[in-house]
Predict the structure.
Amino acid sequence: MKILLDQDRCVASGQCVMTDPDVFDQRDEDGVAILLTPSPNPAHHTAVREAAAICPAAAIQLAEDQ
Amino acid sequence: MVIDTALSLPAARDAKCPFDPPPELRKLQDQAPLVRVRIWDGSTPWLVTRHADQRQLLTDPRLSADPTKPGYPLQVERRAVSGRGGIGFIMMDDPEHNRLRRMVTAPFAIKRVEALRPGIQRIVDDLIDRMLAGPKPADLVEAFALPVPSLVICQLLGVPYEDHALFQSHSRNLISRSSTPEVRGASFEALHDYLSSLLATKDADGDLLSQLAERVGNGELSRGDAAGIGVLLLVAGHETTANMISLGTLALLENPDQLALLRDSDDPKLVASAVEELLRYLTITHTGRRRVALADIEIAGTTVRAGEGVILPNDIGNRDPGQFPDPDRLDVTRDAGRHLAFGFGVHQCLGQPLARVELQVVYSTLYRRIPTLHRTAELADIPFKHDGGVYGVHELPVSW
Ligand code: HEM
Ligand code: SF4
């Protein structure tokens, strides 16, 4: 799985950080999301899919491995 | 399929089920995904009944949140307020909305808010100490539910708490549907002027208003816009959470099994899930998100035309059985994570991390410290905020 995060769309809701703080964090200056790891290991996949689903700004896209 | 209903908004709740959305509104969910309703000014905007469609539309940039655009389904009659602009960025569209929102997002980041938890716990404990030392019965709203978020938002913004009587009463006027346009306008002006004069006194205090004042100083932001943002944060920062505290407590008292689960658990995960479930179940922002279409939009087999108003009632979205099984049951153990109580899309609540921490601290403390807490009025005699832009109770007499 590869995460594509669109920081221009992000509205700093924090939903992704709340869902998986090992994968998502926020910039100090404006709370915009950052990725701690763009290719999280499988233990995180469920949480990351949930984060993508609840991101209010549709800023998290996932490229799933085939 | 186009369904025209005779339903006028706001619809009335069933007096026997004060926690449930109006039954007439709920029934529309079974009829069709989009229906026409009639609002106070005679116009007939679309009402979007289901969770999935509400979510999809709230992320659609072709819907505008700007109430000055023709066709916008206004909650109440609007009176232009001279020279002061609007209430912050909640009623603006991108890119300007995004530019202004990002000026105030930093202190609401998850880690920053988490760092406030110990201070919030102290505020909650102090207020409980004071309530226990005072007379009973007490009004939980005045003694506890309003002071908690007011104290917290005052600290964060840098507003003197001594002024709480002023900003609480104007906030009430501002969001009450029963205020006349004149009263509402005057309260907005008073709050705007209050924030504007506070901003003028600010220098490098480290609070949020000081940061806005700095941006005014270096020309990034007009004084009027800064004051508007201040009004938005001050009003949204205390009224909403206060209603969740009092109405949430009442809902738990009416569901003793759920209250017991919460009181008897040490698990922060259960507390967090109870907060999400109460947000879903109560959906206090009960007049619906309001938007107007800027272009034709195809949704659920219907075309919403450019210039048509759209109402997205998140209260019924949060009771959609297609998303939440057995939706009318309050179940603090369910996964309510996809609720729409904070809205969805680019306007999703900025203060949600703060509201969550406040509610987690309150719900995990109040009922443990006062296990005998109970209401002293009949449910039927409790004054619910049927006329409020935010639902809740005006008063909650309790004893212990
Ligand atoms: C339980 C408490 C709360 C609830 C239920 C709530 C609900 C909401 C909802 C539904 C919206 C979306 C409005 C729309 O889409 O038109 C919103 C926006 C907003 N809320 Fe909250 N809110 C709460 C607490 C707070 C707090 C504590 C603050 C500030 C400290 C806050 C500040 C805001 C702001 C600034 C916006 C506008 C965001 C934007 O337009 O980008 N809210 N809130
Ligand atoms: S959930 Fe989406 S909008 Fe919210 S912080 Fe994460 S990426 Fe940004």
